[in-house]
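Let's practice the habit of predicting before peeking. Look at the sequence and jot down your guess about where helices and strands might fall. Then scroll down.
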Amino acid sequence: MSGLKFDKRELGNLEYALDREVLATDRRGGYMSTTIVGCNTRKYHGLMVAPIDESDRTYVLLSSLDETIVQHDQSFNLALHRYNGTYEPRGHKYITDFEYTPTPTLTYRVGGVILKKELLWIHKRTQLMIRYTLVDAHSDTTLRLRPLLAFRDKHALSKANMDADGRAYPIPYGVKCRLYDGFPWLNMQLDKEEAEFVAAPDWYYNFEYRKELARGYDGYEDLLTPGYFEFNIKKGESVIFSAATDLMASPETISAVYEASLARRTHKVDFVSCLEHSARQFVIRRPENRTEVIAGYPWFGPFMEDTFMALPGLTLSQGHKEDCIDVLDTSVRDFKASGLLDGRVAPATADAPLWFFFTLQELEGHIAQKEIWAKYGEAMKGILEAYRRGFGEELKMHDNGLIWASAERPLTWMGTMIDGQPLTPRRGYPVELQALWYNAVEYTLAVAKKQGDKAFVAEWKELPERIKTAFVSKFWLEEEGYIADYVNYDEVNKFIRCNMVVAAGLNYTMLDEEKRVRVLQTIHEHLLTPRGIRTLSPRNMLYKSNYNEDQRSQDLASRNGSAWIWPLMLYVKACFAIGGERYVADATALLDAFDDELQTKCVGSISERFEGDPPHNPRGGVSHATSVGGLLFIKMLIDKHTPKRAKSKKSATKAEAAAEEKPKRKCVKKSATKK
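Done guessing? Here is the structure:
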């Protein structure tokens, strides 16, 4: 990574610049997102997108803030919008520089005027602040700021109507607006007392969001402006604009909040620091002591499955065990409240609660097992009992110990629907569900035994062997050298999919070392790419590789060829289990391959998935928890297995010497990926 900077040549190329987005969050559900040149290309973009109540729904309040420089009675509009295929105004031509760290910063040059614009989302508050600094000017300069308001759900679009209140109501150092009842007031203030607000309410029509049109959705919106702020600004002077649901008491307060918040920002100077910053954006704290993980930006909310897949990488990789515990505590409360533990309500996906055990296993490296059992033991046993008891006929344990999942709707993570039908039904015994189930039972038994829960151990101790025997019998394909994707009464599905990696990568596996190696070799040959693990082998007739942006094309490919990162973390984990420290170089190469992605879609973050074939274009959500968490999980594995070199030859242990004499078996022959 050369640095998260973009120069005038890149910023002036709209085909390039409009495909790169920026994201900042308030760590409680709100965010700011747009492109690096400030042109909104999605209905999910906006300078202030925030919750307005205790639900997880978020709303676009402030869509954009258009700046105009006025000199010698000439106006230069710095904004960039698209209307019916035409860009107007074309303020991007004035942009000379974009920097991501410590906060997104744009620099404009208009003749002899150089204006710097720094955008700052305030953590734990619904507040956006923008600091404008006149770096250089050779004559009197006026700056005009025009807010464009939406006040609508982020999944919807605003249309001109008679119900909207376009008035701006005076408050100290600014105005407040609220287009509709039920919304909070948006307080817009400046730290410059001489600033004037000119009331001029009006609708601006037909903003075009090209990303929505490409996805096959409505992409046209009307926005309301209440008027504009106008003030003179001198060379070297800075003026701060604040948009917040809370009222700022004074210009000094505005300035103090900005400076204090900016001082706390970390500098994203390399690949890992960018990933760590991105990871923190997914963990949000809501009212009523709720800590959740946003599955991805811009359109996802919290999902149980994604939460537990991503949580170790998002939190424990940075030593943030408290965040991990808070998310787990929230989840346990939800388990109890929803009726999951007593079988009243089935999980949205059959495997989601079983990923809970994966997170707990990783947490053991940070808190004592005794504490884990004290806090989560009842939930662990409750989940297992719920699965054993079953959730009706759709999801239940059979006498062979395996978990059956069959319904009209898809019950696995491969839950994409096309024309009302599941793309990958996988009814019966899905492979990853059995692997997660076995891991959960074995782990709970191991902890219960150490913590002295003799009753639980006596009741459950015979089950793992039953599960394992049935699994190997039904799933192992000796001739092919891998495991089936799913099995039911009529079918042993032999598709080579990423799901088999779950059976190889968890702490407790039903595969012996030889079978594990053969599975990993199959994945290496068919599924491994520089951008993750494919969901389906390219040799399969259903394989979809590169595809268009429309939602149908993306849905068809998402589980039939797209590459995902979360299976990659389990692949790397399994390879380390087989190869030990000898796999460090290969794992490092896989991780380093993602460096360039930080500047490809969402600046400083990683997309949800990638096309299966080169050039592996990013697709789906532009910033995704399982992707960022998966890469940080791989980084944790590398750090764990990187040998700490002794200061002298004498410090080498007998075990190390023995390892040199009899090296561990490598899981794959080489690190180069097969495309």
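How did you do? The longest strand covers residues 220-233.
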